[in-house]
TrEMBL record:
Belongs to the unc-93 family. It comes from Capitella teleta (Polychaete worm). The chain crosses the membrane at residues 12-35, 103-123, 130-150, 156-185, 197-214, 220-240. This is Uncharacterized protein. The lineage of its organism: Eukaryota, Metazoa, Spiralia, Lophotrochozoa, Annelida. InterPro entries: MFS_trans_sf, UNC-93_regulatory.
Length: 262
């Protein structure tokens, strides 16, 4: 099949859409970075401040703690793509029929909404480490189920159970991500949040590319590998954050003892 124009070619049209999406996303990063710089610096910003804002942005990219969070942020959007496109197509529509898709989506939405409402309570009750590791284990169960699941109409209940695990993970991670970034980077909140938005967008672009270039099985292996790396990086970050909090607590106690002695 010959293409009469550039956009008649599916690959060219797809590449153009990804390019426009990425370009507009980069423009939005600059606007958000410029507008939110005053949150940390307590100053009124203008276009003249853009170079210094970009320098702070790229400097933050090389931060060791930020590098640990990049796989975690990328994996969020990639796993959203696995559920919304691949899971819905291969594990709901094909074995059960398209009429079951609204019911599965409704079950997913119920668990997502409930988990989002309970996310702040979970962190207050159990802490960052237990909460985030629990939802990561649930998401790993979701991916493993897709890996070994033999699709059959006799296991229609499984089509409802599996996305509930994904709904719990996505809702809690999305709702807690800004607060977690604030806890990790208390003095660089605006730049850190823009970083997370950027990597979330790149994760969406990565999901588009993998969907076009890979079959579902290969994409699932790539997702599991990225998820495993993000799990390790997240736990290292949680360990570092806990050590910092312990040092700060000991420092505060020491200052209080010195004040009482004086």
């Amino acid at each position: 099949m010959t293409c009469m124009t550039f956009l008649d070619c599916p690959v060219a049209r797809y590449t153009s859409c990804v390019g426009v999406y990425t370009g507009l996303a980069m423009l939005s990063f600059l606007i958000i970075l410029l507008c939110t710089r005053s949150v940390d610096d307590n100053i009124r910003t203008s276009c003249a401040d853009l170079p210094s804002s970009l320098m702070a942005f790229f400097k933050h990219t090389l931060n060791k703690e930020q590098l640990l969070l990049i796989p975690f942020t990328l994996a969020i959007e990639l796993m959203k793509s696995v559920f919304k496109s691949d899971y819905a197509k291969w594990f709901v529509v094909c074995p059960l029929g398209i009429k079951w898709l609204p019911y599965v989506t409704a079950m997913y939405a119920v668990f997502e909404l409930t988990s989002c409402m309970a996310s702040s309570w979970l962190v207050e009750r159990f802490g960052w480490r237990v909460t985030l590791n629990t939802v990561m284990v649930l998401e790993f169960g979701f991916l493993c189920a897709l890996l070994v699941w033999i699709r059959s109409t006799d296991m229609s209940w499984f089509s409802f159970f599996v996305p509930s695990m994904h709904g719990v993970h996505i809702s809690i991670v999305n709702s807690l991500l800004p607060a977690f970034v604030g806890a990790v980077f208390p003095g660089e909140l605006s730049v850190a949040l823009v970083q997370q938005i950027m990597w979330l967008t790149f994760g969406a672009v990565l999901s588009f590319v993998t969907s076009a270039l890979m079959c579902f099985a290969v994409k699932l292996y790539v997702t599991i590998a990225l998820f495993s790396v993000s799990f390790v990086g997240l736990n290292i970050e949680l360990f570092v954050m806990r050590r910092k909090q312990e040092y700060e607590r000991k420092g505060n106690i020491l200052l209080q003892d010195q004040a009482k002695a004086a």
